[in-house]
Amino acid sequence: MDTTVTKTHTAEGSHTGQAQVAATSFFALFSIVGLALYGLPFYYDFMVSEYGWTRAQVTSGNAYSKLIIGPVFGFAAGWIVDRFGPRRMMMAGVLMAGTALIGLSSAPTLGLFYFFYLFNALGYVCGGPLPNQVLLSRWFDKSRGKAMGFAYLGIGLGGALVPVLSNWMTQQFGWHTALRVLGVMVILIALPLAYFVKENPASGAAPIRGVAAPPASIGSVVRSWPFYLLAVGSMCSIGAVGGTNQHLKLFLSLDQGYAQGAAMKIVSVVLTFSIIGRLLMGWLADRWPKKYVMLLIYLLIAAAIPLLFF
Predict the structure, then answer these.
(1) How many Å apart are CA 177 and CA 183, to the nearest integer?
(2) Would you give per-residue pLDDT tens digits along the chain (310 residues)?
(3) Distance separating alpha carbons of residues 83 and 97, to the nearest angstrom
(4) Is the backbone of residue 200 left (phi > 0), alpha (psi -120 to 50) or beta?
(5) CATH of 19-200+225-309, one of 2.120.10.30, 3.30.70.3340, 1.20.1250.20, 3.30.420.40
């Protein structure tokens, strides 16, 4: 009798913990990627107009920060999350991402702009997909794909909402205050959840795992040609999508002459469709060979970007 009650309580605790972890990852990605990463390009044209910077100078903040943070911290991030745990890493990432937006709202020089953009990139590395994937993998086994799919919907939802929210705030308070408020929102939304989340299930509540084959060694992976095909394909697709997102608002407002409200609607619609794309491609990946799904994604990206000029 006592054993049955204990097992029931353990299962209930595990389900509650899983729900908390899924919600934490959802809102962490919603804030750090959806609001901070996708929201910042909405303000580029204001910076160009007010500070007299070129579009190359403004968009180079993202490129420089990735070139510096990626090689230096990209490999170290995995060691850090194993050494200190995803929770503390996420908390640091949330604080850095929010602080970056607050600093960028009052950075009248390119030096300060690039400095705070480094913080933004660090926030993404420390609080973005990597620690959230580790956190979810500790709590979910059979439903891990669904849990990650739910968490990643936060990126699309945040990206779809941030143009609407930013447009309204800039009209009401100006772009400086709007960007500052966005940074505060990132911290207020994600930090409490990251602080209270449990990194590991309680003893006896861990998900039951089947017998799995031992993972391949890093050496064997980097010596295989599929690794380099995946690396090059990911680099090209992420570069194409990220580059388009970085320049889209500038292209619409400065080159095409769209009003702020019209540009906001287009950017929001694009990121709304990313939610549909995540769900659709996840569904297809369970039914088609993964390489064909990736090929379809690459073809869609290659075909869609030239349509911006028509």
Answers:
(1) 10
(2) 444 444 444 455 578 888 999 999 999 999 999 999 999 999 999 999 999 999 999 999 888 888 888 777 767 887 888 888 899 999 999 999 999 999 999 999 999 999 999 999 999 999 998 899 899 988 887 777 778 888 889 999 999 999 999 999 999 999 999 999 999 999 999 999 999 999 888 755 545 454 455 666 667 877 888 888 888 888 888 888 888 888 899 999 988 899 999 999 999 998 888 888 888 887 887 788 888 988 998 999 889 888 877 7
(3) 22
(4) beta
(5) 1.20.1250.20
Looking up tokens 């939610």, which residue turns up?
A: 275
Greatest CA span in the chain, whole angstroms? 74
CB 167 within 8 A of CB 99: no
